[in-house]
Amino acid sequence: MPNFENPVPPNGDGNLNNNLSNNARFNLQAQIYGPLNLDANNSNPEPQALAMTPMTVVPMLTSFNPSLSVADLTKDGKFQSDPLSELPSNDYPSLPPNQAPSIKVEYQNLDNVSKQQPPNFIIKENGSIQCVKNPEGNPPTSQIIIQVERKDKQITAPPANEQLAINNLVTYLGKRIQANYANNLPDVTLKNGTVIKQVGIIDQQNLISASVEHTFGDKIAPADLTTLPPRQPEIPSSVNSLSGAMEQVAGSNGGSTSLDRSTVSQALPSIEGVPQAPGEANAIIASQQMVASLFSPDKSYPYHTVREANGIGYEVGNYGLNQFTVGNFLESFLTPDILAKLGHPPDWSKLAKLLESDPKLMQEFEQEMQKALLAQASLLQKEANLHKLPPDDKIRLAANQLTAFAKNFDNPKFSQGFAELVTKLPGSGGKITKAEVAQYLPKALQDVMANDNVQNFAKQLGITDPNKITASQAGEIGLSFYLGHIPNSSELTNASDAQYITAGSNMYRLALAQLGSLGDINVSDIQGKIAVNASSDVGRSMWTHYMNNGNLGCAASVSEVLQSLGFSYANSALVYGLQHQLEAHGWTSTTKPQAGDVVLGYRNMDANGGGGAHCGIVGDNGIVYDNHSSTGKWSQDHLDYFSQRNFHAGVIYLKPPG
Predict the structure, then answer these.
(1) DSSP state of 484
(2) 246, 249, 36, 29: which is closest to 153 by C-alpha?
(3) Contact at 8 Å (CB) between 574 and 566?
(4) Is residue 435 left, alpha or beta, with left meaning phi > 0 and alpha meaning psi from -120 to 50?
(5) Which tops the pLDDT comparison, 59 or 494?
(6) Who contacts 407 (Cβ-Cβ below 8 Å, separation ≥6)?
(7) DSSP characters for 550-573?
(8) 126 close to 161: Cβ distance less than 8 angstroms
(9) Predicted structure pTM score
(10) Which of 31, 192, 221, 585 has the greatest number of beta carbons closer than 10 A?
């Protein structure tokens, strides 16, 4: 590769002559990280960094007497005291009145220790336990954080000693919470009559043994329960396993794992009614798949699934459609006459009797249903015509199914049957059968309803461009399907709901990765953070620590993004200079670019070694992030700009180590 001294691509990026500022070596700990090399978002401010003090400790692998306080066990040497116990109390949110503490277990964040909330306990690799801050102090803390030590790049389960210490500490703390806060804990009743005071446990990385969690009423299968506590969505085991694996990668300082595509596919139910149209955003389809994965429909006939849901009524079909999500779809087009008689918000349990008693309203209902369904079919046909799809294409078949289904509303008996199914969804109008779901909610209609709700929930979250749904927003959309509304502040902080959002976020990332990958899906902490930071920096001037203006600032801008993540060696404002730095520190070339890779394009060279070059950071879904000399802003472009047509001397994709 020749040495390009003065690269000048179409945007004018690459050469900076004497424009370097005095602050070229700028290094900042990462503020945003994501476990997958796709999209993530986190805007929480960072708590104070912890300066961990090395200690010589002895493993304590025995169980702990729950009648003894944390102070007693620390005094007895069961828990090793730690000088960090003198941290300010405001680093540990205090427990509000009439509530019980929850327990959160998480791996140590090796990439950015200041990213984590300060722990109450640290479990060392040998099984010893340090008490950093007594959670039972005055005041007690609202969430007891247990931080689990791990080695660099470790993404596997904790070793035996550490695992035993985790289980023993969680068991001890759980029993203390049950004894001291019994009146503030919900009851979970097993089918054998046992009543458990449920302790809130957050274990997004699957570090606690399932038997321990079950002891405190957490993650027990609904089939084993006679009653469910309010607002406790269940995460399917296949989803929990995949999400836990992804969460373990986060904060591992470069750890990565490869998830088998077939395993991911089994956890992400397919969309059979209305497949992705050629012009449809991957984010919408990935959100639909995420919703279906969280519901986990029946394997044999997913679109005929019928389940009774705690506090909601019935959930049916591939997406767990309920009175709220079906109602949202109907409410978008039904006449004001019908909606006024159902009340505000609409009481769908009244629909069947209302239509049966008023022929005029029934006729309005039938007409509006037909118009809405035919409009959806027309949109699909236009998409098929635009892309010249063959007659047997699934998009055309879906349009035909919706058209045929719409004609059924010429028959008042059919219309009444559909209304009766809607009336039963709240759970008070009788049993819903699989046959009813098959007859009145065909696959294409379920997909239309799910798609419509995804887009409406996205709008309520302030998302104007469906292509820009972040992973955290997708998780909130998943919870919205379960709740029937955008989660409020208390639901966002509820332990069960928060874990549901995390699982949804991870399944959304996997769905996006699956849409863009033909093989196994790589989950990389480093690439994830690079892609996330590159995305979040759009619109900023990223060259200011290297140059006096943004002209020819592509390498300086890429260096700044990498610097902000701790890659201190990436500090060149020349494209080839940046390539040399990255390769010297273990970055390797790849022919299959993924989000988080650095792309460098080179043009033809003249006899004096001049020419042009440009570089950027690969995003997901065919996106690249790079500097525009015309505006001096970090921008989003199409990755196909980096083609051999534009860069005749070669295009190189570099993957970070790990």
Answers:
(1) S
(2) 249
(3) no
(4) alpha
(5) 494
(6) 370
(7) STT-HHHHHHHHHHTTT-TT---S
(8) yes
(9) 0.71
(10) 31
User: What share of the chain has pLDDT > 90, as a percent?
Assistant: 48
Q: How far apart are CA 149 and CA 263, in angstroms?
A: 29
Beta-carbon count within 10 A of 52 CB: 16
Question: Does CATH place domain 525-655 in 3.40.50.1100?
Answer: no
Residues 379 and 451 sit within 8 Å (Cβ to Cβ): no
Sort 559 into a burial class: Cβ within 10 Å, 0-12 / 13-18 / 19+.
buried
Closest CA to 617 of 655, 645, 568, 591: 655
Q: How far is CA 188 from the centre of its chain?
A: 28
Residues in the chain: 658
Q: Identify the residue whose tokens are 């260096």.
A: 559
Work out the burial of residue 435: count CB atoms within 10 Å of its CB; fewer than 13 is exposed, 13-18 middle, 19 or more buried.
Answer: exposed
Residue 647 and residue 492: Cα distance in Å, rounded? Answer: 47
Residues of the chain with CATH 3.90.1720.10: 525-655
Give residue 326's pLDDT.
Answer: 97
DSSP SS3 for 171: helix
For 589, phi and psi rounded to 5 degrees?
A: -75, 150
Angle, nearest 10°, between helix axes 575-584 and 554-563?
A: 30
pLDDT computed for residue 563 by the predictor: 79
The kind and range of the H/E element at 223 are none
Whether the predicted pLDDT of 81 surpasses 70: yes
Extract the tokens encoding 135: 């959670």
Confidence at 58, pLDDT banded by 50, 70, 90 = very low
Confidence of residue 228 (pLDDT cuts 50, 70, 90): low
CA 204/CA 498 separation, integer angstroms? 9
pLDDT at 15: 35
pLDDT digits (tens, 9 = 90+) for 143-162: 999 999 999 889 888 999 99
Tokens of 584: 């010297």
- Per the CB < 8 A criterion, the answer to whether 481 and 461 are in contact is no
List phi, psi (to 5°) of 207. Answer: -95, -15
Over 80: is that where the pLDDT of 86 sits? Answer: no
Q: What is the pLDDT of residues 305-331, one digit of tens each?
A: 999 887 789 999 999 999 999 999 999
Residue with tokens 């993004």: 561
Q: Is the pLDDT of residue 430 over 50?
A: yes
Contacts (Cβ under 8 Å, ≥6 apart) of 456: 328, 332
